[in-house]
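To start, one record:
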Amino acid sequence: MEIGRVVGGRYRIEAGGVGEVRFARDTGSGQPVVVKVPAEAPGPAVRLRHPGIVTVLEAGEHEGKPFLAMERLDGYTLEDHLLDGWYRAAEVADFGAQVAEALAVAHRAGTAHGGIEPARLLLTPTGVVKILGFGTLPPAPSSDLSALGTTMRALLGHPVLPGSLGELGVIVAELLDSPAEQDPHLTGQFAARLRRLAQDLEELEDREPARQPRGPVGAQSFWVYQRPERLPAGRVLVAVICAALVAVTAFAIAVTA
């Protein structure tokens, strides 16, 4: 698919992409698009419409091979962003909610993605997560929800066990154990739980911004979910006495010197 070639009678190739994907422009409207030739045979996924799913503009045939023309988006994948470090727990909950909400639409339509992973989740400059690859991937044996759990665990950057990250850890663990069958009702439940959790975490971080340290998300998640326990009075007294002894000793050494 060399530059300048027209696909489907209207999409002119402008630049190369990854694999069989090319950057193109609609010669009629001037809209920038992405073209994939050949593509999987068009199925129900090409009719999906949701802010979290890349829109398929046209499914056609070019020189005997099926092609897809899709909206072209600005942004980087969540995998690209991992090069800058792990994500905060509130971000992971928000990303998970967005993906689950989009998957719920797909599952209600009777289709699945089959390959949810950080490399197939595009984060736009406005903070919207777009699922890439709908209708262009062969079916996968694992469930979309299980793949979402694996993805969220990767974004958190450390093992997630029930209770280790509060409710977020519990949800991730449940996602990982999800059945292979796509259940729209179950997907919708996870989407609602993640959306509520994301809002709660954002409010908590807004109230206590100083308690959100930089660094690995494991430490951040600890501060998000775990409030430091108040030390018993006896331990506080011992700590004060030890600190006083250290100060007196340091003063004596300084005077002697």
Q: What stands out?
A: Helices lie at 78-81, 89-108, 144-156, 166-176, 184-207, 217-225, 233-256. The first helix runs from residue 78 to 81. The chain is about 40% helix and 15% strand. The beta strands are 6-7, 11-16, 21-26, 32-36, 56-62, 65-71, 76-77, 121-123, 129-131, 164-165.
